[in-house]
Each structure stands twice: as C-alpha cells, then as structure tokens.
C-alpha cells in the first residue's frame, strides 16, 4: 500500500467503514487486543507521520489542565494568557485549539512543542490501546484521517 498518496487509502477507508464497524462491534475483542501492539509497531515502521500530519492539520487534542500548565510554562506565558490566545471550549466543555491546523504545527510538519505536547497527542492514534476497540465512532473517524489507523484496522480484518 502506498501511503504517499493519501486519497488512495482515504477512499478505501471510506469504502470499508461498514466492515470496520462490524468487526469492531462483533469481533473477538480479546484476540484483537492481543494483536494491537504488533500491528501498531508494523504500521509505524511503514508510515512516517511527518509525511502526513493530518491529525494536526484537521483535529485538536483536548488540553487538560496539566497540559495547559506545562505548555504555558514552556512558552513563558501565564496559563490564562495561553488559554486565551490559543484555546477555546468545545461542545464537550474541553479545551481545544482555536484554529486548524494546530498553531504549533510547522510547515515542515514538526511540532514546536513536541516534547511538551498534550497527552492526547502523545497517545494518538490509539492504535496500541483498547481505545481503538472501545470508542468505535472515534476509531472510524480516525481511520479516514490517519493511515496508521486504516492500516491497523485493515490488518485486524485479515486476522478475523
């Protein structure tokens, strides 16, 4: 599979949403959970996030209070200033970035706060966590924006 051409995998992911949903809802969760670490590792051995950065271009992580504190300190800002300048409350009452792409994403796809990034960013795309199996709507959405999620789900289908 060629991940340098996102429309190819994005189109396939859209076409496979029903199959992915059925597998995530009815598949053997124990078996899938055991496969995730290897599938995650295999996917990221082929996929370079710096070639894509769809997550940072299109979505915002939640900024929890420890994230806000850590990043504000890094930027030598007061927490309130940081929040006012960069964040807004979403419909779930979570702090998220005000704009897309993320203001910390550089044109080279590198994150200017990478070592201090929010916990959600560190965990994304959850391909080595039970979140992948438990939060099905999130996983299906992520499969259309992240080639690693698509790859892991596709491999899980092959192991059913």
Please provide a brief summary of the model:
With 160 residues, the chain is mainly alpha-helical. The chain contains ten helices and two strands; from the N terminus they run ααααααββαααα. It has helices at residues 6-15, 17-26, 29-46, 54-58, 65-74, 79-86, 119-123, 131-134, 136-143, 147-158, and strands spanning 87-89, 95-97.
Structural write-up:
With 160 residues, the chain is mainly alpha-helical. Among the domains are: 17-47, no CATH class; 57-123, no CATH class. It has helices at residues 6-15, 17-26, 29-46, 54-58, 65-74, 79-86, 119-123, 131-134, 136-143, 147-158; strands spanning 87-89, 95-97. Strands 1-2 form a two-stranded antiparallel ribbon. The two termini are 20 Å apart. Residues 1-5 have low confidence and may be disordered.
Estimated share of beta-strand residues: under 5%
User: Approximately how much helix is present in the residues?
Assistant: 55-70%
Placed side by side, the strands forming the largest sheet appear as: 1-2
Order of helices and strands: HHHHHHEEHHHH
Overall structural class, as computed from helix and strand content, comes to: mainly alpha
> Which parts are unreliable, with pLDDT below 50 for 5 consecutive residues or more?
1-5
Most strands sheet: 2 strands, antiparallel
- Spatial gap, N to C terminus: 20 Å
Query: How many beta-strand runs?
Result: 2
Q: Provide mean pLDDT, rounded.
A: 93
Give the overall form.
elongated
What's the alpha carbon Rg, rounded to whole Å? 17 Å
Note the total helix count.
10
């Amino acid at each position: 599979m060629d991940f340098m051409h996102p429309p190819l995998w994005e189109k396939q992911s859209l076409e496979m949403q029903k199959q992915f949903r059925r597998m995530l809802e009815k598949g053997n969760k124990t078996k899938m959970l055991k496969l995730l670490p290897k599938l995650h590792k295999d996917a990221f051995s082929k996929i370079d996030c710096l070639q894509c950065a769809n997550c940072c271009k299109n979505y915002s992580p939640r900024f929890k209070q420890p994230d806000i504190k850590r990043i504000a300190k890094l930027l030598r800002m007061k927490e309130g200033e940081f929040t006012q300048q960069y964040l807004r409350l979403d419909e779930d009452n979570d702090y998220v970035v005000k704009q897309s792409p993320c203001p910390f994403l550089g044109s080279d796809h590198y994150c200017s706060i990478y070592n201090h990034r929010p916990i959600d960013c560190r965990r994304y795309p959850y391909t080595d966590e039970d979140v992948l199996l438990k939060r099905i709507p999130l996983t299906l959405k992520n499969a259309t924006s992240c080639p690693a999620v698509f790859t892991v789900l596709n491999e899980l289908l092959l192991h059913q």
